[in-house]
Specification:
Elements: E1 12-15, E2 19-23, E3 32-37, E4 41-48, E5 52-57, E6 63-67, E7 71-73, H1 76-80, E8 86-87, E9 91-96, E10 99-104, E11 117-119, E12 122-126, E13 130-131, H2 139-149, E14 160-161, E15 164-165, H3 167-177, H4 186-189, E16 194-196, E17 207-211, E18 217-225, E19 228-233, E20 235-242, E21 245-247, E22 254-263
Antiparallel strand pairs: 1-4, 1-7, 2-3, 4-5, 5-6, 8-13, 9-10, 9-12, 11-12, 14-15, 16-22, 17-18, 17-22, 18-19, 19-20, 20-21, 21-22
């Protein structure tokens, strides 16, 4: 599919592939620091020869390098649009200018209309399941259902989709579908919300953060209640947690050292 834009108009853009890597530098060999999912919007900060652009993601402000061919120019009105729908099934079908694209859970659909919609010169027809929060379910039931959609997803450094996710990318995507924005990395997320003093005071939906030997926060997981945590370590998995850290449900060994607990979900949730 041809991407249609000019240098003059290519200041804001949208991702038109299922998952696009976001790299530390303008090279395929560079570290993947995050990803853009289909429909995710970004600002163009720099251009490099070879089809690379440095972008800043609209959702969380994260920056990195992406291939220009994986983006499509949009106008400012679509970029600024607040209302947003999300792909709700594990894999969803989109027709993009008459060509099929399969997009993952949580992919963005700004401008969505059930009879079709457009992103500039791109015409979209959505055939998957649209994510809508149910008013008949408790928030903890919704949260667990979303988190378990990622269960057994393989760990992928910089990943944030059901095709592969790291610890903070997994948590960020679950909270995005809950309508709560999180920053991208665990060390960033650890500054959001309010601190909780003791594990006994936590509830389903709170976040637990873990540090390394140097005291740097390197891991995050989502508390489920009843002494359980779901997190991305090797794969997205459910393990046990106590005041010292995560206990592997497979080996019984402690795998991560607990550093702090945070509540990011609004106070009215679960009340």
């Amino acid at each position: 599919m041809q991407t249609l834009f000019s240098e003059e108009q290519f200041s804001v853009a949208i991702c038109i592939v299922p998952v696009a890597p976001l790299r530390a530098t303008a090279s395929h060999r560079a570290e993947m620091v995050s990803q853009l999912l289909f429909g995710e919007r970004c600002r163009i900060l720099e251009n490099e020869p070879g089809g690379w652009v440095k972008v800043q993601l609209r959702f969380d402000g994260y920056e990195g390098w992406c291939q220009q061919a994986q983006l499509h120019a949009i106008d400012a009105s679509l970029f600024e649009q607040e209302s947003e729908a999300f792909a709700g099934d594990w894999v969803n079908d989109v027709m993009l200018n008459g060509e099929p694209v399969r997009i993952p859970l949580g992919a963005s659909l700004p401008g969505f209309h059930p009879e079709g919609f457009s992103w500039g010169k791109l015409q979209l027809l959505y055939k998957g399941i649209l994510w809508r929060r149910s008013e008949t379910l408790r928030e903890d039931v919704i949260l667990k259902g979303l988190a378990f959609q990622f269960l057994h997803t393989g760990y992928l450094w910089g990943g944030k989709s059901v095709f592969g996710a790291d610890c903070s990318g997994f948590v960020q995507q679950v909270f995005k579908l809950m309508g709560v924005p999180l920053l991208r990395d665990a060390s960033m997320q650890a500054g959001q919300g309010k601190e909780i003093g003791f594990l006994e005071e936590t509830r389903c939906g709170d976040l637990a953060f873990f540090d390394n030997e140097e005291g740097k926060i390197t891991h995050v997981g989502l508390l489920l209640g009843d002494g359980q945590i779901i997190h991305a370590s090797g794969e997205v998995r459910v393990d046990l947690i106590h005041h010292e850290g995560i206990i592997s449900s497979t080996t019984g060994e402690r795998t991560h050292k607990l550093r702090l607990l945070r509540r990011v979900l609004p106070e009215y949730v679960f009340e």
